[in-house]
Hints:
heterodimer; A: mainly alpha; ABC transporter involved in vitamin B12 uptake, BtuC; two-stranded antiparallel sheet; 4 strands; 72% helix; globular; B: alpha/beta; Rossmann fold; 2 domains; seven-stranded mixed sheet; five-stranded parallel sheet; 45% helix
Amino acid sequence: xxxxxxxxxxxxxxxxxxxxxxxxxxxxxxxxxxxxxxxxxxxxxxxxxxxxxxxxxxxxxxxxxxxxxxxxxxxxxxxxxxxxxxxxxxxxxxxxxxxxxxxxxxxxxxxxxxxxxxxxxxxxxxxxxxxxxxxxxxxxxxxxxxxxxxxxxxxxxxxxxxxxxxxxxxxxxxxxxxxxxxxxxxxxxxxxxxxxxxxxxxxxxxxxxxxxxxxxxxxxxxxxxxxxxxxxxxxxxxxxxxxxxxxxxxxxxxxxxxxxxxxxxxxxxxxxxxxxxxxxxxxxxxxxxxxxxxxxxx
Amino acid sequence: xxxxxxxxxxxxxxxxxxxxxxxxxxxxxxxxxxxxxxxxxxxxxxxxxxxxxxxxxxxxxxxxxxxxxxxxxxxxxxxxxxxxxxxxxxxxxxxxxxxxxxxxxxxxxxxxxxxxxxxxxxxxxxxxxxxxxxxxxxxxxxxxxxxxxxxxxxxxxxxxxxxxxxxxxxxxxxxxxxxxxxxxxxxxxxxxxxxxxxxxxxxxxxxxxxxxxxxxxxxxxxxxxxxxxxxxxxxxxxxxxxxxxxxxxxxxxxxxxxxxxxxxxxxxxxxxxxxxxxxxxxxxxxxxxxxxxxxxxxxxxxxxxxxxxxxxxxxxxxxxxxxxxxxxxxxxxxxxxxxxxxxxxxxxxxxxxxxxxxxxxxxxxxxxxxxxxxxxxxxxxxxxxxxxxxxxxxxxxxxxxxxxxxxxxxxxxxxxxxxxxxxxxxxxxxxxxxxxxx
Lengths: 298, 438
């Protein structure tokens, strides 16, 4: 019984983390058809920015509860700057090129940003565990869980719900969905696709940095964390379907529970269970669970 | 007249003497300036292993190189340079695939013409580089990687390892539990799912079977290396509540695990056994639960004995880098001391500046002073070092804000290393026959 509850709770926590990390990646792909390898850098820079902010905030001795605002603020500012600069400074010159070339450009950006992070933060590790410890724990079926981890489930729900609302209930969201479905037709209808691209890429970057910032208190922030995350996020997005927000949610949940079940019931399988799931989905449905095959144009 | 002639002779002698001294000085200083040894230092300068292993190793190496070049080292290492030659270090990043690491090694030897190579922290890279080093006849000293397979079934002339084999971690830990916590009868493992983690767990489990057959393994968990998220693993350990939790985690994974375990009070239910835990002792002292068993790879870092050489190293390192040295710093420094000892010995024997082959011969079966321990190149036909190891029980003093160890136990080299000619794993599985622990 305890094991079953643990699988449910651990699976939900892991799924929330995966969802937060994968959301920006799938959004960028859905709108711009860019598989952004540099998304891992956004995650890492968000983690570094949050760790630096937490360190400075704690050192200043201010009200402890405000540390969460400091984390969020640092991540959002970092994401907005990164997203805007990269889209305006690099990617907008590449939109007429083949998708594979844009993929290579984002890989180049990934390598450059890795070195930029080394220049700014060095090779040492940053720890920012105070926000994790501050919230205490809750016991579920005899097992203590950090409230910080449990709150990730709520944060993922709010971020995912907010994005769903913005896309389906607001005018700008509908414009963005129109671009997702057909870029050319959207241009003919008078939608400023260039602005949509800038906003989308910046939003994707902010989602990436927020994912990193929320993870910073439970990990050691150091070089290399971005590369690890991009592989997992990619697997989740492929399971759910490239470019589908609902797919990212379902992919995260499926991967999260598969991972938790493997750890508790079959530890040797932990290494490959998510990738086995991805392979299974690709065999059954190559476009992913909620991905749409490209429409035929006559 | 005669007096005048003598005066002239003295002038000539004095002038020639001054000229001679000047020429000799010029020759000697040009010899010092010209005779340099290009030494490549390889380690993780970027990536996940940089902060906990690569950077401390590089810092330790640079400190000792500067002292060797300046001739300010203590004890048997007080002479300047390597057999008088200045070290010209070349710091190279180990990051990248094994194929890339091997290609970089070839470039260093064949195109940049380095005289010797020291370093490598990844066991896979050591295994791949060793045969290439032998093929190129390039003197190579592995200073950190731990796999016991390098010299098992292989005979090398140019490849050495001054660091101990990883086997001392598992065997030492099992001895320590039997000695300090004999009541602990259940144990679990959480180790990274790659060669290092798998070998560490296997060797620890086999050692426990040999030393305390009554103890039982309850679960072995295998998170992916660098996964960083251990919620489900910690839940499993909280459900099983083993007496001892063995982990060979290092770097960011170790810190992440400690952070998440501390938040859930894992240390209240089980005693953590962190075979590389010493590296976090000064960086995250509040995250390590009191009562955890910590070790380094050998009696290095915190466990290094207080010899004059170690006292100098520790003080100079802290002064230069603002933090105490941890075991990778010691391993890099010990490799350099081994190289210097070999160069100086070879020069003394050859009565001239030695060739690489002569240095290799001098290093084979060499016994030399490390920073804290004597290092014997006693295994692998004289190419593999054996050293003692040490473990202790961690305590964080909240009053002083300083971490410390109690119940520190040193295990002699031949207690935790297999006898010459015996394979490490076979030795453990055979019941640690021939171990000399007293």
